[in-house]
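User: Run a structure prediction on this.
Assistant: Running it now.
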Amino acid sequence: MSNDPINRNPPPGNRQLLILLGLFLGFIVAVLWLLNLLVNGLIGMIPPSVEQKLGAVIVPVYEKQAKPSPTQDTLNQLLDRLEQELPPEQQKARDYQVLYLPESTVNAMALPGDAIVIYQGLLQQAESENELMMVLAHELGHFAHRDHLRGLGRVLVVRVALAYFIGDVGALQSVASAAVETIARSQYSQSQEKEADEFGLMLLDDTYGHVAGATDFFERMNEKTGANFAFLSTHPSPKKRVEELERLIQKQGYEIGTRSPLPKTLK
């Protein structure tokens, strides 16, 4: 008769380990899904007036870098033309503006507070009014879907919402300070960029009656290497963008008309 003690707690088998791992991963996915639902719900509850209070602290940081100029005036005139074609709900309680930054960075971004930043480096890449309007319309698409708020990150969005419901203006300003750095490195998901492109195409067609130039900027970006293209690091592959835009153009039956030259003040 063996004197070896009986092991009443044998180690779990491979199958049990896999089941436990699956349950753990399922729990993590469920938590992330619920957190995403919570953030999306909070974003939908943040009114434009609160967003503009947030922008009142964020936008001046970029206004200091932008200098009033004929170039900035012309960009705002182009934006005004697009605004006239926006759905009424996108115009209500909004005051969109373009801030032109004389820096070599090739990028554009939407800020809380209805501001669109256009860098000189991006403008220098544009060869027609239409492709520049597509960039502006794309950024308006981010406003329409409130992607610029989602770009702040889950933690900051929750803090903005709490500051709003509690009525803590000081907390809102604290969030804004943290948001400036977050915005500079924020990225949108592929689905967000696709929706903004689709919105941009619709706005371009409503403005011109055609979508000529819609893919030009992205096609040119696909050929560029070695420059300060922040646009390439914060946006999906230009090649994929062009393919998706061409598919959308065919699907919606948009016409391809004649491109308009850039206004003289933008050359």
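The first strand starts at residue 97 and ends at 101.
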